[in-house]
Design a protein that fits this description.
Layout lengths: L2 H4 L39 E2 L2 E4 L2 E4 L4 E5 L6 E6 L3 H19 L3 H17 L1 H12 L3 H18 L5 H4 E9 L8 E11 L2 E5 L5 H14 L3 E5 L6 H13 L6 E3 L6 H8 L5 E5 L2 H11 L5 E5 L5 E4 L5 H13 L11 E5 H17 L18 H16 L3 E4 L16 E4 L5 H4 L6 E7 L2 H9 L3 E2 L1 E5 L3 H9 L5 E4 L13 E2 L2 E2 L5 H6 L1 E9 L1
Parallel strand pairs: 1-5, 8-9, 8-11, 9-10, 11-12, 13-14, 13-19, 14-17, 16-17, 19-20
Antiparallel strand pairs: 2-3, 4-5, 6-7, 7-23, 12-22, 15-16, 18-21
Helix pairs in contact: 2-9, 3-5, 3-8, 4-5, 5-7, 11-12
Length: 529
């Protein structure tokens, strides 16, 4: 690939369409703490002022806020600053559009999904540098796992969903009762649209996470209000623009972006929102569940993780090390499925720890646009400080720092933390709480039973791993783990499998056909013949 595409720059300045201030000039609005409101955008910055509400691109009522590049600490661009009133208008637009969209012929809905997938792929080279700039994802992660997977998810839900959304039940012979005459009673089970869905996503995979919510929701006949994370909303704005341009009807897809929590809280509490689909922290997910209970909202909550990778005494050590090392190499550990606890049998513990330390030391940390970079920055200064507080707590509680543990000395800008390997016990804070950074805690265990007990001794239960040369043994261990997903001798995913967690890792499942189920309500239709 040419140098211009592998080391791509941020796209040239552009201003969104619709009613807006003079091109290149930020619209007046309230200032956010720590977020400057510069009067004029600089060359190379993306300027988005407009929200999509009811099929119209309208200026956000709060003006704009600044989005920073976590690798350089420079301004990537400006995003629309929504208000609560903007969020309420988006919900109303989605509610108004719902009846017509739910009644739209299935063939038309699927045609639009396929068009969306194609349009995302056509714009991939334009979208990739923007995603890298605002998320800090490395070129490898961005080019393979960010933009292409977003397109894949729309393509997946362009398939005919009727085998999932419709099912006939065997007829029953029912005798006469005081309720009704007897007869042969038939029934069909239908999955009807839930209604208006608020799609609220995390910062680590902004386009992919949003596509994973919006695509099945639309395919099932719902309308949506899209609310990306405040740290990196610009690529999601472009995703919504794609959906608008390919022809989704007015009000079917609506956009709200904001640096503060007010608009998202308005979505969660609105009586007109029927479902909240959220990916993010357990603390925020808990508050969403509490707030949504007042209106009996349907919830899909994909929350935190503290994945255990069990390495048994007969495991392929190199394969296990590769899996555990993905905590460092896959978006700097900012992923809920990361195997952040290495639960290793005593017989191979020294080998595993030695190889992990060697791997951590050789991983290139730096510029995410450089294809040779393996570890990029964390999303923000606040997140780096959070990770550093955990590292300090680990040291204070007696964890041994085997590799890393600080900021890379060769990088004086950007929110970087070295790939870090700690040796400790499962009762330490660094082993109990989700750090969301490039930190692995190695825990020595005596045998298989001890490994299972340690893995299950967690408030989380999203994604665990088991490595053993005996796949029957590994499968037996997997069945005893309190986790929604278990990888056996692999860190790969099957995207048709149900995805979600036990315990504080959330509620509900999506992925494949399970995504259609998540965004639909069961309805039984009964008739007598």
């Amino acid at each position: 690939m040419a140098e211009s595409t592998t080391r791509a720059a941020v796209p040239a300045t552009r201003v969104s369409t619709g009613e807006r201030a003079q091109p290149g000039r930020a619209q007046p609005g309230r200032a956010q703490p720590g977020r400057a409101q510069p009067g004029r955008a600089q060359p190379g910055q993306v300027v988005e002022r407009d929200l999509l509400i009811g099929g119209k691109w309208l200026p956000a009522s709060g003006g704009t806020y600044v989005v920073l590049n976590p690798a350089t600490e420079e301004v990537v661009g400006h995003a629309p600053e929504s208000t609560v009133e903007d969020a309420e208008a988006a919900v109303q637009a989605a509610s108004d559009a719902l009846p017509a969209w739910a009644a739209t012929p299935l063939e038309r809905r699927l045609e639009l999904m396929a068009k969306a997938a194609g349009a995302i792929r056509e714009r991939a080279r334009e979208l990739l540098p923007l995603v890298i700039a605002e998320t800090g994802a490395t070129f490898s992660v961005g080019s393979r796992m960010q933009v292409p997977v977003a397109a894949d998810r729309f393509e997946r839900y362009s398939r005919d969903p009727r085998p999932v959304l419709q099912r006939a039940l065997p007829a029953q012979v029912v005798p006469s009762t005081p309720l009704a005459p007897g007869g042969l009673v038939s029934a069909a089970v239908l999955r009807q649209p839930v209604g208006v869905v608020a799609c609220i996503t995390s910062y680590n995979f902004p386009m992919v996470n949003m596509a994973g919510k919006v695509a099945p929701a639309l395919a099932a006949g719902n309308t949506v209000v899209v609310k990306p994370a405040p740290q990196d909303p610009l690529a999601v704005v472009e995703l919504v623009r794609v959906l608008d341009e390919v022809g989704f009807p007015p009000g079917v897809v609506n956009l709200v972006t904001a640096s503060g929590a007010g608009p998202a809280e308005a979505l969660v509490t609105s009586p007109a929102v029927d479902m909240v689909s959220f990916t993010g922290s357990t603390s925020v997910g808990t508050r969403i569940a509490e707030a949504g209970a007042h209106t009996m909202k349907r919830l899909l909550l994909e929350l935190g993780g503290k994945g255990a990778c069990i390495v048994l005494d007969d495991a392929d050590i190199q394969a296990a090390v590769g899996c555990i090392g993905s905590t460092w190499s896959f978006h700097s550990g900012q992923i809920c499925t990361a195997p952040t606890r290495a639960v290793v049998h005593a017989g191979v513990y020294d080998q595993v720890v030695e190889k992990l330390g060697a791997l951590a030391a050789m991983l290139k940390v730096g510029d995410p646009t450089d294809p040779s970079t393996v570890v990029g920055p964390l999303i923000s200064a606040a997140q780096r400080e959070r990770v550093e507080r955990y590292l300090a707590a680990g040291r204070a509680e007696g964890a041994e720092v085997l590799s890393g543990g600080g900021r890379p000395p060769h990088l004086d800008r950007g929110y970087y933390v070295e790939p870090t390997l700690l040796a400790g016990a499962n009762d330490m804070t660094v082993a109990r709480e989700e750090i969301f950074g490039p930190v692995v805690v190695a825990i020595r265990v005596d045998d298989e039973e001890d490994a299972i007990a340690v893995a299950n001794d967690s408030d989380f239960g999203l994604y665990d791993y088991v490595f053993s040369a005996d796949t029957a043994r590994a499968f037996g261990v997997a069945k005893r783990l309190r986790a929604g997903h278990v990888g056996v001798n692999t860190a790969q995913r099957n995207h048709e499998a149900p995805f979600g967690g036990f315990k504080l890792s959330g509620m509900g499942r999506d992925g494949g056909d399970y995504g259609l189920e998540a965004y639909s309500e069961l309805q039984a239709v009964v008739w007598s013949s």
